[in-house]
Amino acid sequence: MTFRSAAVAVALLLPMGFLLPGCDRARSSSATNASPEVRPPAPGAPASGTSASLPAAVSEGSPHFQHLMGKVDVGGKVLHFEDHQGTREWVVNAVKSVLDGVPEAKALGPLNAEEIVDSIGIADAAASARSLRKDGDSWLARRYSYFPEGRKGFSNLMGKEAFEFRSPSFIPAATDLVVETRIDGTTLPGLIQRIAGACGQQAAASKFLSEPLPIGANLEALLSMTDLHLMLGVDISSWQATPLSPQPVDFFVQITGGKDLLPLLLPMLEQGMGKPKPIAGRQGWEMPVPPLQQPRAVFLYGEDGVLTLASREEYLKYVETAAMKLGQWKEYTAATDHFPAKGNLLVYASPQIPTAIRWVLSKSAKQINEEGAPMIIKAAEMLEAKPWSLCVANEADGISTTSEMPIAADVDMASSLPVLTGTSILFIGARAWKKGSDRAACIMNTRNMQQAVRGYQNIHKLKPGDPIPWEKIHREYVKKPVCTGGRYTFAKTIPKVGSLACECDNKEHHAEPGKTKDW
Questions:
Q1: Which segment of the chain is annotated as a signal peptide (predicted)?
Q2: 153 phi and psi angles, rounded to 5 deg
Q3: How far, in Å, CA of 41 to CA of 25, rounded?
Q4: What are phi and psi of 490, to 5 degrees?
Q5: CA 461, 462, 463, 466: dihedral to nearest 10 degrees?
Q6: Residue 296 pLDDT more than 70?
Q7: Lowest mean pLDDT segment, chosen from 11-25, 56-70, 255-269, 293-307
Q8: How many CA atoms lie within 13 A of 379 on its CB side?
Q9: Residue 500 Rama label (left phi>0; alpha psi -120 to 50; beta)
Q10: What residues form DSSP beta bridges with 399?
Q11: What is the C-alpha to C-alpha distance for residues 449 and 444, in angstroms, rounded to an integer?
Q12: Three-state secondary-structure class, residue 396
């Protein structure tokens, strides 16, 4: 059993921990819309109101309650507050069930689920809260997840500390899509070692990290130098409100922090693309990018280790000489005036982006003959030409997420859960996609039930034919599933290997022949 096989088993656990939400303006012009009995606190200040003065949904109180209410704008509707007490125990039990149901994991020997959970950091949040407020025709949302002992594990991949955003003073004004973030791999070697130790594979992990790479270094050395700052700008301003066809897309990517990595990467780049040539005052290559309808993109590097990728040399020159920058653009400032000066992820989409998405969705829906097409077209019509924005900021004791979501809606969304937002309805696929999605979800449900039963069987040393206590399994291991398009039948006794404990009556939802032979 290699460490890579172990990593496959552990990778099944990762989706549990990365459901980051959204956040609300601190300096909004709509502060006067706050409910009279509860005023928004100053940014970063503790909440002035008591828990009794807040919405009933969160009035039960918690040792973490006042801390979180200082992080979310209680002038908006507090949609959800959750104290995560006991979450770690639930996650540990779920991890045990997953590991017990993965045949590859059994060959690793004793696995410490507690150490795996703590290393990855998927159950460290002690509490979380989110709020929503209407500001004109925009929805402003905030979420804060509280980590009393600080963040660890994979939550550090966007940087251990918030950094000053550079894109407002660097990216040209009127750029339609901007993404700025950090890629910090320096903590990964230690994290891999901790996870491997919990799996009894520390020696294998050390070997894995120390194996020489074709570029002349090992993985541990490569990761220890990987602390990069990435900026992306995309310009689709040539699109019209009702375009006849997509226009060529200009883009710009800059990656800083690669001075130590560049000497390792250059031989590999030259092997694949030939010797570099002088372009725009740097060294680099030209390459085709047909998906973006640009004939030749440029990929450049400088002695400072800065990597640059641009759709064309002319656009790169425009980026570097533009007189007006993004931070001076009225659409950008209007959509981000509630952002902190520092953060770990910045996303801004200009009014052109909803226009382009609306056109793509409508065009695609009209080309398919499916019953879901009218729904897609209707959802696309809700997209108005207004900016979107998102900011994630790592703080010493948690993660704050801020977002603005303008959609065309006449309903009072603040009185209900924020499930009818643009992002949650826009990407409902047509019938063919949905059938495939339902089938994949059903097979995953069947697999989860099988893993839970096998985990319970192993822990309690049961044999095929012994009764299955489904109520206990659904209470302690995994929730009872519901299939879209079928009904489940649950076996009364522990099945033999290859037989299913949970089956769907929809024949289209069955896994490929032979796939379940080892379940």
A1: 1-26
A2: 70, -140
A3: 11
A4: -105, 130
A5: 170
A6: yes
A7: 11-25
A8: 22
A9: beta
A10: 145, 394
A11: 9
A12: coil
Helices within 77-201 (DSSP H only): 87-101, 103-106, 113-120, 167-170, 188-198
- Asked whether 394 and 151 are in contact (CB, 8 A), the reply is yes
d(CA 112, CA 361): 46
Paired with 283 in beta bridges are: 278, 301
- Output the pLDDT for position 34: 31
pLDDT attached to residue 501: 92
Q: For residue 456, how far is the Cα from the chain centroid?
A: 31
402 and 338 Cβ atoms separated by less than 8 Å = yes
Q: Which helix (H) or strand (E) holds 391?
A: strand 388-395
> What is the Cα–Cα distance from 318 to 70, expressed in whole angstroms?
43
Distance CA 108, CA 471 (A): 30
Single-letter amino acid code for the residue at 227: D
pLDDT the model gives residue 28: 30
Q: Give the residue carrying structure tokens 């500390």.
A: 161
Q: Which of 303, 405, 431 is nearest to 348 (CA)?
A: 405
pTM, to two decimals: 0.66
Per DSSP bridges, beta strands 77-83 and 294-301 are: unpaired
Q: What are phi and psi of 192, to 5 degrees?
A: -60, -40
Q: Report the alpha-carbon distance of residue 149 to residue 266 in Å, rounded.
A: 41
Please tell me the distance from the alpha carbon of residue 309 to that of residue 284, in angstroms, as a whole number: 10
